[in-house]
Amino acid sequence: MIKLISLKKDSNIKVDPQISYFLNPDFVYIPINAKILIQQNEKVTKEEFVTADLASPISGTAIGIKTMQEENINKKCLVIANDFRELSKNKKVKKRKITLNNIMDILIKNNEEKLLKKLQNQNKFDNIIISAINDEPYIFNNIYILKENIADLLSIIDELSMLYKSNNNYLIVKNNEANIINDCLNSIGTYPNIKLTLVNDEYLLEKEEFILKKLQIINEKNLYLDVNDLDTLCNYLLGKDNSTKLITISGDAILESKVIRTKKNVLLSDIIKKYIKIIDAKYDVIFNGLMSGCIIKDVDNFVITNNINSINIMKKKTFKVVDCINCGKCIEICPKNLNPLNKHNLEKCINCGLCSYVCPCYINLKKEVKINE
Amino acid sequence: MNRVYLHNNESIKKIVIKYLIGLLPLVLYGFYKNGILLYRDDLVSFVDMFNVFYLLIISILLLLITNFFFKKKIFENMSLVLVCTVPLFMPPSINLLVYAISLFLSLIIINVLPKKINYNKIAFVILFILIIINMFEPLSYLNSAEKLNIYALNFFDLICGRTIGGIASSNILLGIIVLFYYAFFNNYKKVIAFSSLLAFVIIMILINNFDINELIASNAILALILIAPDTISTPAKFQSMVIYGLILGILTGLLTSFISFNIGVFIAILICSFTTPILVKLTEKW
Hints:
- The complex is a heterodimer.
- Chain A is an alpha/beta fold.
- Chain A has 3 domains: 15-88 and 242-315, no CATH class; 100-238, Rossmann fold; 329-371, no CATH class.
- Helices cover 26% and strands 24% of the residues of chain A.
- In chain A, α3 runs parallel beside α4 (178-188) and α3 (141-163) packs across α6 (227-238).
- The radius of gyration of chain A is 21 Å and the shape is globular.
- By secondary structure, chain B is mostly helical.
- Chain B has one domain (12-282).
- Chain B is built from 13 helices and no strands.
- The longest helix of chain B is centred in the first third of the chain and has 29 residues, at 12-40.
- Chain B is globular and about 65 Å long.
- The mean pLDDT of chain B is 90.
- The chains are: A alpha/beta, B mainly alpha.
């Protein structure tokens, strides 16, 4: 049994209990990864596919192409100017009956590859596990999604359990999230087939492999979804808007951390200007977590795409790196039993960052591992 | 830049401080046995009573001097642990000048030798100093009282530190307490310490025909606790550490019994440290 650890956290970083909204950006930037389906100056409606794989989250006009930053990579993006009318060609979709075929149709139509991979060609699961955990420190997306939508999400879990004839249905929450536990307990009584499972605040429990080991159901046929995935599916099935996403912006270099519901593909700098007060002159901006994320090179042109879940704005740190003392802490802590010291079997690395976290010499082992892949 | 932004509380400085705290009881016992007790019996002068502290002060000063010349900082590596461990294994009646010169030379040598060579620096420095001491006078680990053989000691006395050993490395009981302190609270390769001690004890019992008194080679036991688990020159993987410890324990038992009771362990540790890269390569895929 792998021993998981709790990460050291700063208790002074507190998050605003209310969700903030950024739903009226002036422009959105759609990364061009596939064929462009519209012309310049053409009118665009909300949720209309503007490239073969991505839909516009707003209605407006396509004004051109600009090079922006998608996860620190320069990417040409289609720029759409917002007309603030939220026009949509899609007919108002009523709540759809949840059947296997309907689910597949929706996922195929909306290019939801991640969900398709999990659900395609499946008609039974022994266990359905819905995780409301965010591993990375100072990130609260899943908890806030659960808080926002608990009734609908519990209803969907119930329907999925009947559809897939699951024996057990788990809703996983950290035991230190007192508010959401309270909300869950108030609503979950209606669903006796859903078990509210509390787990310790340990790093890597968000990952499917580790939570299944913790629940001791790794050898069974399991459907593992996080709350974000479930919410996406729920929105499709209930005909709700899927043009927004939740991101957490937190850190010790800002006055107050916030969870923000924003339109997809907006500029990070626009959100920061509107909602975030930076209190330290020297700071780093990191996306997707302090353990497995990256420092953003160009904050002004950084686009919040679907893969961006969090932004941490942290006081600049200098790490005094010294020679390795061969203590073996990185080997001891690695959840995949790898050896960052002799760089053996590195293709199995899951980029958790624990090797660097425990290194007393402050060596960036994660970088060493990735270079040698 | 792809860097982990969070870090736990461990750092080289904290590791070194914890190691030094562990050495304190041994130093204090050494001061008691080779200082206070001998002064009480008029076997040493008041000034000579504090020999163990003089050795430590000299060692730290020499480290600061060599660090200055080689542009290193004191908490950037484990060298402070090295210079504070070496004096503990020195003979009680050591000449301070000879010690200072030989330690200084050995510190220069270890700074000049290429980093690629894998060896236990503490064992190397101790052996270097003892060889130089031996050039001036025959090496003896007996203090003034032990030379006169004026005490009648039983087995328990010997375990509690009244055995022949270094100036602060004679108390096996304290050594075992330090071992558990390091094992639970520090960045310490306890697997090597435990496996080498186990192999050493078994080999000594077998070689000496179950004579328990031969087992009380305090230098060997304390060296296996304090010097053998040196982080830099030993393997880091669990299986490699177990094998390393067992080989070291056996070699220590053989060299202690047939070559030298007091310094066999340092030779064994040095030899085993040279084999670490081979052992790591052999156990890579386990």
